[in-house]
Design a protein that fits this description.
- The chain is α/β, with parallel strands linked by helices and about 280 residues long.
- It has two domains: about 10-150, Response regulator (Rossmann fold, 3-Layer(aba) Sandwich), CATH 3.40.50; about 155-270, 3-Layer(aba) Sandwich (Rossmann fold).
- The protein has helices spanning about 5-15, 35-45, 60-65, 85-95, 105-120, 135-150, 165-175, 190-200, 215-225, 240-245, 260-270, and strands at about 15, 25-30, 45-50, 50-55, 70-75, 100-105, 125-130, 155-160, 180-185, 205, 230-235, 255.
- Strands 4-2-5-6-7 form a five-stranded parallel sheet, sandwiched between helices. The chain has a five-stranded parallel sheet with strand order 9-8-10-11-12, sandwiched between helices. It has a two-stranded parallel sheet with strand order 1-3.
């Protein structure tokens, strides 16, 4: 069938952007390739600005969402590898509460999982029975993603800067999997400073020693501006005594020694940020 370019443009213009400020990341898991392809097509026809990561088993899915939590997980109920029920239990225990949409032809399994989720602390979750109508899929995706996105309209603003790219990614994972925040991250200290000149975050996480501008230089400039928002300095070379000695009278500067675990970072962040509500 031949598609006229004009018609393609008309369809594209009608697509919905779930998160206008950035890509919406969706992890799509089903062990049947044709089902994944059909779901991907339905999503891409109805939504723009989406990134879809496909997985064919539970183990692969678990690895991917551990590395970078998505805005939405769409999963079938039965598949090889880690079971969905166990995956949800692990995520809830880790307070990683992104939305999940369960799609399955196994109606009784959906009923049982829905009952378990309703009787215990959970997350934004939806259920669709196969075969799926594109309208039903669109409505559930909009509902689940907007549940989380709507809370971020007034959520805390966090700015993160460190020259170690791997560390920045790890800290982003720790933050977005537990807290609803508007997060901006940088590996360039000068780019981060340009952002700080434009707006004040509710929390700044800054590396101690970086090229171009050090953490001390950034903090010094902020103190000259009489900034009072919390500043968490992370460093493997500096000590807490050295950092506190920069501005002994400042009560808004704290320190975390590298290397640190996700739990250690979250313990510091808990002082300034509220975890995402459970079961909303």
């Amino acid at each position: 069938m031949t598609h006229k370019p004009g018609n393609e443009c008309a369809v594209a213009s009608e697509r919905i952007s779930l998160r206008p400020d950035r890509l919406t990341r969706i992890v799509l898991m089903d062990d049947v390739r044709e089902v994944r392809a059909a779901l991907r097509t339905m999503i891409e026809v109805r939504f723009s600005n989406v990134e879809i990561v496909e997985c064919e088993n539970g183990d692969e899915t678990w690895k991917i969402i551990q590395e970078s939590p998505p805005d939405l997980l769409i999963s079938d109920l039965t598949h090889p590898g880690l079971r969905l029920e166990e995956m949800l239990e692990r995520l809830t225990a880790a307070q990683s509460l992104f939305p999940v949409l369960v799609v399955s032809a196994y109606g009784q399994g959906i009923v049982r999982l829905r009952e378990r989720q309703q009787s215990s602390p959970g997350r934004p979750i939806g259920f669709l029975e196969k075969p799926i109508l594109v309208e039903s899929l669109q409505a559930e995706i909009e509902r689940l993603v907007s549940t989380r996105a709507s809370r971020c309209k007034t959520c805390p603003r966090v700015l993160l800067v460190d020259d170690e790219e791997f560390l920045v990614e790890m800290m982003k994972l720790a933050i977005v999997s537990k807290y609803d925040v508007a997060l901006k991250s940088f590996t360039s200290s000068t780019a981060a400073w340009e952002e700080l000149e434009q707006t004040d975050p509710d929390l700044l996480i800054v590396g101690g020693i970086m090229p171009q501008m050090s953490g001390e230089e950034i903090v010094r400039r902020l103190m000259e501006r009489k900034s009072t928002y919390p500043i968490l300095v992370v460093s493997g070379f500096l000590s807490e005594e050295v950092v506190r000695g920069w501005f002994p009278a400042a009560s808004n500067i704290t320190f975390l020694k590298k290397p640190f675990t996700l739990d250690q970072l979250r313990a510091e962040l808990d002082k300034y940020l509220e975890p995402m509500p459970v079961g909303t």
